[in-house]
Amino acid sequence: MSALIELTDVSKQYGHIKALDAVSLEVHPGEITCVLGDNGAGKSTLIKIIAGLHRHDAGSFTVEGEETRLGSPREALDRGIATVYQDLAVVPLMPVWRNFFLGSEPTVGRGPFARLDVAHMRRTTHAALLRMGIDLRDVDQPIGTLSGGERQCVAIARAVHFGAKVLVLDEPTAALGVKQSGVVLKYVANARDQGLGVVLITHNPHHAYLVGDRFVLLKRGAMAGSHARADITLDELTRQMAGGSELDQLSHELGGRAAPGAAAEVSAAAGTGGGADGAGETPAPPEKPAAE
Amino acid sequence: MTATSSTKESAEELDERLVRRSLVRGAMSRPELGAVVGALAVFVFFSVVADSFLETSSLSTVLYASSTIGIMAVPVALLMIGGEFDLSTGVMVTSSALVSSMFSYQMTANVWVGIGVSLLVTLAIGVFNGVMLSRTKLPSFIITLGTFLMLTGLNLGLTKQISGTVSTKSISDMEGFPAAQKVFASQLTLFDVDFQVTILWWFGLVAVATWVLLRTRAGNWIFAVGGGSDAARAVGVPVARTKIGLYMGVALAAWISGQHLLFNYDVVQSGEGVGNELIYIAAAVIGGCLLTGGYGSAVGAAVGAFIFGMTSKGIVYAQWEPDWFKFFLGAMLLLATLLNAWIRKRAEAS
Lengths: 292, 350
Description:
The structure holds 2 protein chains of 2 kinds. Chain A is α/β, with parallel strands linked by helices. Chain A folds into 2 domains: 5-242, P-loop containing nucleotide triphosphate hydrolases (Rossmann fold); 246-291, no CATH class. Chain A has helices spanning 43-51, 73-78, 96-101, 118-131, 148-161, 178-193, 205-211, 234-241, 245-253, 260-270, 275-281, 288-291; strands spanning 5-14, 17-27, 32-37, 58-63, 66-67, 81-84, 107-108, 115-116, 166-170, 197-202, 214-219, 222-228. Chain B has one domain: ABC transporter involved in vitamin B12 uptake, BtuC. A two-stranded antiparallel sheet of chain B has the order 1-2. The radius of gyration of chain B is 23 Å and the shape is globular.
């Protein structure tokens, strides 16, 4: 199957700061490509290039096999790339159905008598949400009264309804609790099952591994790894994501509280003294040999 | 078995309650509710304390007073829903009347020419407010405060320069005056009671504004730019164009008001109008508009104007000192805003 979008060695510089260096990724229909990385890893730069907010400086960016350099978010939308940002672009006080069609309202009638096709808008909103698995009792309620997860889903459903082929999701689970995150991931999987290619940006390897087909790891603007699901385990993904060897070192520096394995060793060594107190009072002389 | 049936029952009960609650919430979440309750209270109050308040001629007078405020309060409410203020509305009405009158007089033209020129000039003021706002991104409070002061100065300065006094010359003997007076300042007789034509303008504006707000794309955009302009921009709503349009709507209403002012008295005092802008805003706020934008209604603003009309005339019918009018308005504004806030909190909690 050919890729919906494919980035090959894409780079982006802001002034003399290299924000993105030779990053490659592909998105296929009916698949979820996860982009993982810590803060400052270049995730938002990558998203801005795909969404048409910024142009890349080097490398190739193809949409359905065609080389492109997107000039605006509108252009990206016209090519079927819809981006759902963290703030979701919804107006909290407005009813769900008005939000759903905001900016692309269907009308009936001509000229000065053109009016909103309210019945159609209500029906379509309800149906589109139902397809995503949300049975909203009242599409007239202000969207601000929905939970964070539901709002995310409305934003996703909106993108799907307006003909997106590629759905780019910017940290959809970042501000959500465990249960809500699960709900959102279910809808993401739902969008995938409808044949969309999904780019899921996250810094949570657990969420990524639940739904992802491909994983691209970013670190300091460069690729730190690219794996198909079959080639990697959750543990390995988590380790790489957290920085692998860096994490091991960190667990030493923190007196072993970060990694469970190391924690057992340290608390055994500290005896009955209590790990936290010991780490807090002294700048940990026992760690010194480990740092060298 | 019993356990399942009881769960089922409680589920049904819950559903029923949900329906009932959402009905109440439906009524409670109307932005006009606070204003309607307030209007009823004011009406009952003056019916009791002023004997002549309930006569039909009084009703006509009250409606006329309400209409002169309401014609402006309605577009001002739309602007507030769009998240902006306009402090220049009061003097803009006077400017519009002055331009119309002085142009016709100086050019010895048909008054309709003056009316047309005035429409263009007033709309241009609205465009100026809107474009300045979109270009500079300064708060509308500052921009329109500037326009307010400039217009106040221009009204007095230009009128003195051109007419030699602070008021315009009478244009009542000029060509087209009777027809224009019929349109902007005539009496209509209905069931043996005389009504001012401005009441029709007012009702017409409320109807058009409500239709625009609830049933057109522009209305959707007005709510969106007021409730979350970044989100609106992100989904392709023309934010600047919507706001400029709102300022032009305010200007259009100022033109209607201004022509009424002119053809009702055939001369215009150039210092008039200062302070009215706050009354229009107060009427919109009493009518349920949020100061922060994104919420409110045209009908609410009309009811707010009606409260003002009832109060200003009710005080006269009750034979009190009219000086108390402003005090009453202030108290009413606070009460209505508190009531609105309380209702909204209750509606959101349920």
